[in-house]
Every structure is written in C-alpha cells, then in structure tokens.
Amino acid sequence: MNIVVVIKQVPDLVEELELNDTGTDLDREWLKFKVNEFDDHALEAALLIKDAQGANVTVVALDNGLDIDKALYAAAAKGADRVVKVTGDFEGYVSSHAAAKALGAVIPSLGADLVLTGVQAVDDRDGQLAVLLAHQLGMAHVTVVTDINVSGSAATVHKEYGGGMIGEFNVQFPAVLGIQAAAETPRYVPVAKVRRAMKDTNIDEISADAAGVDAGTEVQKMYKPETGSGAEMLSGSAEDIASRIVEIIRGKGV
Amino acid sequence: MEVTREIFRHFPLWMEISFYIAAFSAIGIFLYGFFRRYKKYKKGRPSGRFNQLGKRFAAASKKMATNETIFKRDPVAGWGHLLIFWGFVVLFIGTTIIAIDHDFLELVFGFSILKGTFYKVFSLCMDVFGVLFIIGLLMMMFRRSKKIPQLDYARPDMKQGDFSRKGYKIDDKIFMWVLLLIAISGFMIEGLRIAVDKPDFEVWSPVGWQLGHLFRSIGFVGDNAFFATYWFHAIIVFIFIAMIPFSKSMHMLVDFANLMFADDMSAKKLPGVTEEKMKESMGYTKLEDFTWSELMDFDACTKCGRCHVACPANAAGTDLSPRDVILDLRTYADSKSGISEIFKQTFSSTNNKKEPALAGDIISADRLWSCTTCMACVEACPVGIDHLNTIVNLRRSLVEEGNMEDMLQDTLQNLGDYGNSFGKSDRMRARWTKGLDFKIKDARKQEVEYLWFVGDYASFDARGQEISRKVATILHSAGVDFGILYESEKNSGNDVRRVGEEGLYEMLAEENIETLNNAQFKTIFTTDPHSLNTIRNEYPDFGGNYKILHYTELLLQLIKEGKLSIGNKLDKRVTYHDPCYLGRYNGETENPRNIITALGASLVEMPRNRSNSFCCGAGGGRIWMDDSHMKERPSENRIKEALTLEGVDVFVVSCPKDFAMFTDAVKTSGNEGKIEVMDIIDLVEEAVMMPA
Predict the structure, then answer these.
(1) Which of B155, B362, B439, B511 is the most exposed place for a label (fewest CB within 10 A)?
(2) Closest Cα partner for B624 from B447, B411, B482?
(3) Which residue, among B654, B452, B684, has the nearest Cα to B546 in the 3D structure?
(4) Do A192 and B409 touch (CB under 8 A)?
(5) For residue A24, what pLDDT is reported?
(6) Best CATH choice for the domain B563-687 from the list 3.40.50, 1.10.1740, 1.20.1050, 1.10.10
(7) What is the assigned CATH class of domain B418-558?
(8) Residue A176: which H helix or E strand, with range?
(9) Number of separate helices (H) and strands (E) present in chain B
C-alpha cells in the first residue's frame, strides 16, 4: 500500500516570537523552525504501519523555504521511501485552505491509499487540513486519530473526543487521517543517518503553481494576547444568571 | 658422586619414549587451542596498537613482575598472586633449563651445565620458589573459602536457575588443585629420588632432603613408588599444558598481551567511527565489528569480579554487571568462531530469536543503558580490559536503531536542535550572567587570557547558575582576565559521545572547535569535568588543541599567588567527592583537596576516594534517563557513605552535575539537615576576603 504523509515546518516556540512590521504575521526572518509535532506523529504512524506489514511511504511538504529540506532528509533517514517537495508560491503563512488546494493537486499523482497528516499545528489550531484535503481528493476522512489498525483496504481507527471518550471507526481506503498521536513516540534519528540520507536521497520536486493558492483566509491582524479587564462573575440561581446575561447583552447593544 | 641429578632415573626406554609422546601431544593440543584463539582474533578489525612496542612491552612487564594491578585495593589477593606468579615463573624456567640441558646440550653436544655449584643454586631456587608457590596457592584457597560475594558468579540480569555458571566454578577449582598437585608431586619425586640415593649435596634441595628422610623412615621408597609418583606428576602437568587455551589458565598468556596492547587513553578518549563504518551502522552489530584487541579483552577476563563490585549500576540494582558483559561477549565470540568452551556458562531460558541482535538481545538494552561511564570497571580491572569502550560501541547500535527511552531521545533531539540538553534557545545560554554587577567579556570579540567553557548544567540549571555567578564574581575580584562564548557555546558532547550518538558528537565538537578557533585566548577553564575531559582528550582528534584547566586548578593557583587572600579560616569538617571525569579520568585529585585545606577546613576522606571514587550516577547520559527503577540511586549510596564519617556535615563537590545529583540525593534519602552539599566555590566564597 502507498501512504502519503504531509508534513510542514512551524515556528519553534522555544524562541521568543516577534511580529512583522505590518502586524499580519510573525517576523519569520529571525525565527527558528521545526517539524510540526503532530506531523511527526503522522510520519511515525506511517512508519509503524510500514514496519508491521510493509508499505511505501512518501513524505510531502510544501516548499516554503524554511529548512524544509532538512525535515525531508530527516524523514528519509527515519525510513520514508520517497520525499517530495511541492514548489509554488508558499512564502509566509499558508492557510489550511491554500495548503489543501495545493496538496490536493499533487497527491493524486502519488497514488495514495492513505494520507496522514498532523491533526493541527501551532500555527493552525483549526485542525482543518485533513478535512479540506479529503474534500479536495474526494476521500473519506477521520481526524484526531490515535490508533490505526490496517487490514486489507480498510482500517479501524480510534478518534479521540473530549473527556477521554474514544470512538472507533472503520474507514475504507483511500482516506485521509488527521493524526493526534502515533502509537509510539516518534523515533529518534541519529545525526549520522540524516547525513547519510542527505547524500543518498533525492528530493523530488513537483510544481503546484497551477493550483493557485488564493483560496482560504487572510490574516488581517496578528497581535500578542491583550490583558482584558472588567470580568464579572455571575452568581445566584440559574434564572437570575440567565436574566443577568440577557441584560448584559442588551446593554452592549447587540 | 657427581653433583647433578639423573633425569628419567631408572626409566626403561619405553617409558622414556612414552613420556615424550605424551609431552608432545600435550604441547600439540596447547598449540591447537591457541591457534583457534589466534584465528578468532584475526577476525577482528585492526586496532592500531602496534605502535611503541618497546614501551608497551616494558610497561606490561613491570605490571606483570610487580603484580601491582592485583595488589591495588586487595593486598591479600596481591600477595597470593605474586607468590603463585613468581613460583610458577621460577619453576617454569627451571624445567626449561632441565629440558635444554638434557634434550639439547647433552643430546647434541654431549655436555651438561646442570652440575656442580650451578646445580646446587638451581636446586635451592627450585625448592624455595616451590614452597612460595604452594603458600600462594593455599592463601588463595583460603581466600576463596571465605565466600567472596562476587565469586558466586550471580548475574544481576537473570534469576537463579535461568543460568548456570557451574563450569566457571569447576574451572576455578581445577586450576588451583592442578597447580597444587603439580607442586606437591614435584617435591615428592625429588624426595623419592633423594631417599634412595642420599647424596650429601642434596641438602641444597632442603624440601626434597627432608621428604627423602621422611619417606625412608616410613619405607615409601623404590622404583615403583618413584615411577608412580613421577607419572602422576607428568600426567597432570601434561593435562595442565593441554588445557591452557581452554581454561582459566589462558590468562597466563593472554593477559600479558592484553596489558601490553591496552590503550593508555582508554575511556578518556573513545574511538571514532570511520566514514566507511558510518555508512552501514555506527555501532557494533556483528563479531567482525570488534577489533582484535577487543576480542582479546573478552578472553583476558579471569572473573575476579573487581569491576562487578566497583560498578555503580550494579550497586544500584540494575541489570548491568561489566564482568557479565565481557563474559557474555566471550561466549558470543567463541560460539560465532566455532570454539566450544569447556568451562562455560549455560542458559535454561532460551532466546527464541533466530538471529539475536548483539546490542539488544545478547547484551540487553537495559544493561547497556544502565552504564554511567564512570570508568570504575576499567580502573579496577587488573588485566587492562576496556569494558567502557565496548559498551559505547554497542550503545551506538542502539542509537542507530532508535532503541532508547523517550527522555533520552528528547534530550538528543534538543542537543541537535539547540546545542544544549535543556531544550532552551541557544540565546538563553548566557542568561545566568544577568544579576552580576559586571559584564563578562565576550571572548568571540575580545582577546582574553582565560576562556571559560561554561557547559550546560552551569549555564541552564538554576543551582548551577548560582554557582557560576559565584565563580564569575570571585575570579573577577581576583583580577582574572576571562570571557565566555555567549550563545556560540554548545554542549561539549562528552556525554553525547558516551551515549553513543557519534554523529551528533562530531557535530557539536566541530561547531565548538570552529568557535574556539575564532576566539582569542590563552587557556580554557571550566567547572565541568565532563567538558574538560572531551576538550582535553578528544577534541585534538578533530583539530582542537587547547590547554584546559579545571577551575579547581585555577583557584588553587590564585590562592597560592595570593590573589585570593583567605580572611576567614573555615571551621568546618568536610568530605570531598571526586568527580569521575576529574579524578579517575584525568587524575586530578589533589588540587581540590589542597584548596579545602588551604581554606582552613579539615578534610575527612570517604572510604572510596580519589581514583576509587563512587559515581553520582549522572554520567554517560544517565542524567537524561529515568532512574526511578533503581533499588538505590548511586548518589544516595554515596551520601550514606559520607554520613558514616564522624562530625562531617559538608559534602564538597566540584562538578555542576554532582551538585544537582547530590542535593537531590540528600532529600530523597531523607537526610536533609544532616549533611549539606556545597560546591568548592561556596567554601572559597566564605573564606575569601572580598575587596569592598
């Protein structure tokens, strides 16, 4: 079977974050980037399937210039069979919509039975990439996945809900899974192996120019959390509180 | 009557011929046995130890002649072994002289040197050393009868019943008894010969003379008694010779070679991995990965158990025993080379794997990860075995496969991403300098006399930072011209290398060396013995040649020069803990002690001190691993040792990791208030008059 894993680089929160001059994005020039933690789990989940029953793992990333080669070499060192860089105009922040559109244009050529990606990322808390990508590809999807059991052309997967609830789903391939956590901690790849991969691996480049990346949302303002004021704790019976809430909302002229 | 002795006295010809056939058969088996071992070593990679052969030979000869490595910390074993050793050597030389005289000089040239005065001296020597030999053997037998714990050969990683080492015990017994019987029967032959012939000059064989009288008085004389005793002696000697390469006696030959070809930088400087080897796996996965000297290490082990009892991982109740690693690898290497050991260990729980992995199955990951790389095993070994080197080479395989616990994995990831083990941004490295009322020079931009290589714990650990500020303040007040590398410093890599992540180590070392080479300074100093070790001993291989001091050396220098004047003599009774990487690894044990006494404190030694210091448990990457499974953490064991000292309530350390480990251990062992852990700089601060 063919598994495609989508990864991306995100700002490393170990560094202090600074905004750019227009206040619409982080100042990316001084940031350090690392692979999105959830994507790392997606890759581990794919490699675990490969270890257990054999699979062809392709790792795909949008080429946003942020040390993405390093991330792809590391993926190859861990055991990915092929690494692909999707070229196009991906500078700065790429929204889930835009990413899904670009990836949706490229992944069919890779012949995926299963597409895995992180459920979310530090710069993408909406967790929509897997869903939007499934839509683009016309595949089934499950997100917040913590466990995958492949049998034949289907898999039983666990989806995590709030409060520790787990849902079990049977999903037919082809499918897109948004990975919350792999069954094991993502493996460590020694530096020597990465160096070897840098020598022995070719990063394939596929253009997604035709896809256009104008889809999705645009950030109008980015700012550090502001300290608010005037919180009011409501107490009393349910009725009292309800009428007080109505009063406040009316008072704000909504 | 001529002053000599008759060889093969009254022997019929057939008996003499039988003797030679038996002798040559025994020597044949001996040679075959050694040839097999030689073939095994030939399978090993080259180890580059054929340099300085003269120096190596002289050093090994001295160790062998004095038995100094056996005397170390065990004089009873030392004396016992020394008597056996010299007894054996002299008797062996004597026998060789007889053989040359009888089978060569007499046979070929028709003359003999074994007569007259030379014969008398010869006889006396043989008798005296024969007696010493027997005394040595009896000492060792008595010592063993006292049930020395490590000689029960229990394995910490297996339950009683899952393995059997009866073979080892039988081997030990046979070895001692065979030697004893050879010596006793030798004297009896002499006695029987003298009993009949009674030549006066044989008073020069005092033991034989007395025995001769005794035998005559009890009527134990005649050719048959002589032949029987002679053949008894001869047969066990032949068995002994034949068995040498198959038994414990192997150590008589292998261990000289092992001492001679030991690495005098062992543990201090680990071997790198060649680029060729890096291509497949940086670690050892098969027999052919070992060097011949490593393969010889496995055969050199006499199972004395000194490493076993010195090992902190073993004391902590983990699965690791350095002795068992070596013995298991001997079993492995022999089975892979088609050598069937006679005296072997057996296992009842069979490993089901068809092809068990060398690192992970043969030597389990738990055992390999338990090592603190404290070097106590290497230091304790009387025969030059380098356990540590082998453990690291096997760890490299585990790292290659990612077979490690999560915490260690995260740390290595952090070291790769940020150059420090704390996962902090490299820009935070010099943050500890905030709060100093002066600015430390930036050695990347300004020339300094001393470059301070701070290290991770002294930079990022809250307790370490406080100590670093004290060091900075005191050096500043003493007028020392020093600077740091700020965010350009990376973890030195000492423990990364010992974890087995060689690629990461190379990366860190190369980055540091590049930074250091671009800075202008005369000398490096550090508070961290781990950094000191790798910068001093391992960086030169990567092109980094620097003079590096431990801060204790620098502080002592300042005290001696009067730049630090001691205003308040300390009224304290303290003990001092030698950091493994300073004391055992680098032989620096006296500078800290001299500081402590110069400050006026009275120093009380723990039983295990200097090169015999007991590890805190943090080395070799252990500080990045979980230790909750241990029965007793090494650091707690050490604090208990310190608490046995009367009136000592200060535990002095000179290593940032030690400070963290032991302050924790005082709490976790419930000894808060009984003993205080102090860095040596704390003492200096208290004693030194700071200029106002």
Answers:
(1) B439
(2) B411
(3) B452
(4) no
(5) 87
(6) 3.40.50
(7) alpha beta
(8) strand A175-179
(9) 28, 13
Least CA distance to A191: which residue of chain B? B503
Q: Domain residues for A124?
A: 2-224
Query: If we measure between CA atoms, which residue out of A197, A224, A167, A211 comes closest to residue A76?
Result: A197
Burial of B445 (0-12, 13-18, 19+ CB in 10 A): exposed
Question: A194 and B503: CB-CB below 8 Å?
Answer: yes
> How many CB atoms sit inside 10 A of residue B73's CB?
13
- Residue-wise pLDDT for B90-115, tens only, equals 999 999 999 999 999 988 998 899 99
Cβ contacts of A185 on chain B, cutoff 8 Å: 406, 409
Is the separation of the CB atoms in A129 and A6 below 8 Å? yes
Nearest chain A residue to B414 by CA distance is A14
Contacts of B279 in chain A (CB under 8 A): 196
- Other Cβ atoms less than 10 A from the Cβ of A199: the count is 8
In percent, the amount of chain A with pLDDT more than 90 equals 66
Calculate helix-pair angle for B322-336, B292-300, nearest 10 degrees. 120
Within-domain flag for A229: no
Indicate where chain B has its CATH 3.40.50 domain(s). 418-558, 563-687
Extended strands (E) in B46-204 = 163-164
**Which residues on B lie below 8 Å from A14 (Cβ)?**
417-418, 423-425
A193 touches chain B (CB under 8 A): yes
Average pLDDT value for chain A: 91
Nearest to B402 among A34, A189, A195 (CB): A189
Question: Is a pLDDT exceeding 70 seen at residue A210?
Answer: no
User: In this structure, what token pair is assigned to residue A64?
Assistant: 């946003």
Give the separation between CA B206 and CA B203, rounded to whole angstroms: 5
User: Rounded to a whole number, what is the distance in Å from the CA of B374 to chain A's nearest CA?
Assistant: 24
A34 — contact with chain B (CB < 8 Å)? yes
Q: Closest Cα of chain A to B282: distance in Å?
A: 8
Residue A251 lies in a domain: no
CA of B110: how far to CAs of A6, B2, B42, B103, B104, in Å? 92, 16, 43, 10, 9
Give the tens place of pLDDT for each residue, B402-439.
Answer: 999 999 999 999 999 999 999 999 999 999 999 899 99
Structural domain contains residue A249: no
CA distance to partner chain B, nearest, from residue A75 (Å)? 14
Q: Count the domains in chain A.
A: 1
Q: Encode pLDDT of B213-226 as tens digits.
A: 999 999 999 899 99
Quick check: A165 contacting B, CB < 8 Å? no
Looking at the DSSP bridge assignments, the partners of residue B566 are B688
Number of Cβ pairs < 8 A linking chain A and chain B: 50
pLDDT of res. B7:
87
A129 in a structural domain: yes
Q: Is the CB of B507 less than 8 angstroms away from the CB of A191?
A: yes
> Do residues B492 and B528 touch, judged by C-beta distance below 8 A?
yes
Per-residue pLDDT band at B1 (split at 50, 70, 90)? low
Q: Is the pLDDT of residue A209 over 80?
A: no
User: Is residue A147 within 8 Å of A184, Cβ to Cβ?
Assistant: no
Q: Which amino acid is located at B120 in the chain?
A: K
Task: Estimate to the nearest angstrom the gap between the alpha carbon of B530 and the chain centroid.
Answer: 19
Flag whether pLDDT at A100 surpasses 50. Answer: yes
Domain B275-401: top CATH class: mainly alpha
Q: Is the minimum CB–CB distance between A15 and chain B shorter than 8 Å? A: yes
Chain A: residue whose CA lies nearest to B504 = A191
What CATH number is associated with residue A63? 3.40.50.620
Residue B323, min C-alpha distance to chain A (Å): 29
Contact B399 A190 (CB under 8 A): yes
Nearest to B416 among A12, A14, A191 (CB): A191
Instruction: Determine the 3-state secondary structure of A85 from DSSP.
Output: strand
pLDDT for the residue numbered A231: 78
Average pLDDT over residues B308-312: 98
